[in-house]
Amino acid sequence: MPCDHVLLPCLPGRRLQCDVMMSPRPFRFLAWLSLAAIVFVTVSPIGLRPHDPLPVNLDRALAFAVMAFLFVMAYPRRPLVLLVLLVASAGAIEALQLLAPTRHAHLLDASVKGMGAACGALLAWSWQSLHLRARHVLAARRRR
């Protein structure tokens, strides 16, 4: 089975290619599942929306942060492309509410969702970068 490789900054002026330790398959499934869940919750009538104790803007940001984290972990070769697509999807998914007569799209909601997506993507990229650097250091120690 071919491994996914990721290119991340290692040292100034150098790039290191290394295997991603975790398989992207579970992340891919969960990423697409989270996207489907977010679209359903965003477009469905307000009565079908799940209720939780979190403030609504925090809830929105966390949902998109988790989704973005999962997508960047699932597709580690293209973190910047994913970042742009995920932030744009926040606006597009919010605009889908215009199709539902009981829902209303708001620019502030799209902004909160976009910021959540950006934070989740940045967190996943940071995780991958730190993981890669740690593997590089451990490999260098083993060679000594």
Automatic annotation (TrEMBL):
Residues passing through the membrane, by range: 29-48, 54-73, 80-100, 112-134
Keywords: Membrane, Transmembrane, Transmembrane helix
Name under which the protein is recorded: VanZ family protein
Native organism: Rhizobium straminoryzae
